[in-house]
Design goal:
- The chain is an alpha/beta fold.
- Helix content is 16%, strand content 25%.
- It has 6 helices and 14 strands.
- The chain has a 6-stranded mixed sheet with strand order 10-11-9-12-13-14, with helices on both faces.
- β10 and β11 (207-213) form a beta hairpin.
């Protein structure tokens, strides 16, 4: 399925039904009073988070959504039927913004969370409601009120505990396929990962967490280069960041600094998260090269560093437990 993580739509809540104007007409009641009923309420537009959904794709092709209008009131003081609410299901992690003001309306971060984004209009009063001692035969009623109309921007931010961050083609997809049941597309060329992948990592019984493989970050990503900020947003919700650095790179320390710079430019709070540094693909190094890599000095304090091989399984179990420990310390 194609991954879509933002969409712009318009929603219209239902209009309230009009009040009714009528008078009793019964055989033995020559002066029947007003008996027009009230109009029904217009339907609301309600968003509901659904853990079974993973994309906003449907909202890219269907832009306009309308809840049902309330029905007009009837005679004998019968109220009109309320309009049905319109339920729009979105993936967990969807944030709803007012498109015109850019104001955040709701953040549906948990399964089954719901939010009424547009309220239906109230129904109008029928003429029976306007009867007074001095006006016993009112010949007017209220029209129903219009429902809310809003232009919205939907933005999906994946819900994951740990985010894998790295330059293109450093082995993020391979790592997530090894530590979880996720099966991302893997190939030997840059930008293999075109969509974020999420896997569930099980450490032991009753201990598991979600890890997201974020598409490759490059220099200028915070300004939109490469896959740009469209995927950087998915790292915002994570509690732990794992920086994956290619041990065979000619400039591993500079690679790490570049990644930090892009995250900081995008959102300064990103670097306040717990961090782990991983030097990947050590299976491609000689013993001497590995010794040199372990001598590298990264500008980080108290940040654990792992030397791993996803292919050989080197230090993978230890990394999983360190991810769990780092995550547990943030809860």
């Amino acid at each position: 399925m194609k991954f879509i993580d933002n969409a712009q739509i318009s929603v219209q809540a239902g209009k309230g039904g009009d009040g009714h104007i009528s008078f009793r007409r019964e055989k033995y009641v020559p002066k029947g009073g007003p008996d027009g009923g009230n109009g029904g309420k217009g339907g609301d537009v309600i968003f509901v988070a659904d853990s079974h959904l993973t994309t906003l794709l449907d909202f890219r092709y269907h832009k306009y959504y309308n809840a049902e209008n309330g029905q007009q009131g009837g005679k004998n003081k019968c109220s009109g039927k309320d309009g049905n609410n319109l339920i729009l299901k979105v993936p967990v992690g969807t944030i709803i913004f007012n498109y015109d003001t850019d104001e955040e309306i709701a953040d549906l971060s948990k399964d089954d969370m719901q939010y009424v984004v547009a309220k239906g209009g109230n129904g109008g009063f029928g003429n029976a409601m306007f009867t007074t001692p001095t006006n016993q035969s009112p010949r007017y009623a209220n029209p129903g009120l219009e429902g809310d109309k809003k232009n919205l921007n939907l933005e999906l931010k994946l819900i994951a505990n740990v985010g894998l961050v790295g330059l293109p083609n450093v082995g993020k997809s391979t790592l997530i396929s090894v530590i979880s049941a996720a099966k991302p597309k893997i190939a030997d060329y840059p930008f293999t990962t075109l969509v974020p992948n999420i896997g569930i990592v099980r450490v032991e019984n009753y201990k598991s967490f979600a890890v997201a493989d974020i598409p490759g970050v490059i220099e200028g990503a915070s300004e939109g280069k490469g896959l740009g900020i469209q995927f950087l947003r998915h790292i915002e919700r994570t509690q732990v960041l794992v920086f994956l650095i290619d041990s065979m790179s000619a400039t591993p320390v500079e690679d790490y600094e570049l990644l930090k710079t892009e995250l900081k430019k995008y959102n300064t709070a990103m670097l306040q998260k717990k961090q782990i540094i991983c030097l990947s693909r050590i299976d491609g190094l000689t013993d001497e090269q590995l010794k040199d890599v372990k001598k590298l000095k990264f500008k980080c304090s108290d940040t654990p560093i792992f030397y791993i091989s996803s292919i050989m399984g080197t230090n993978i179990e230890e990394l999983k437990y360190k991810m769990w420990d780092a995550l547990s310390s943030t809860l």
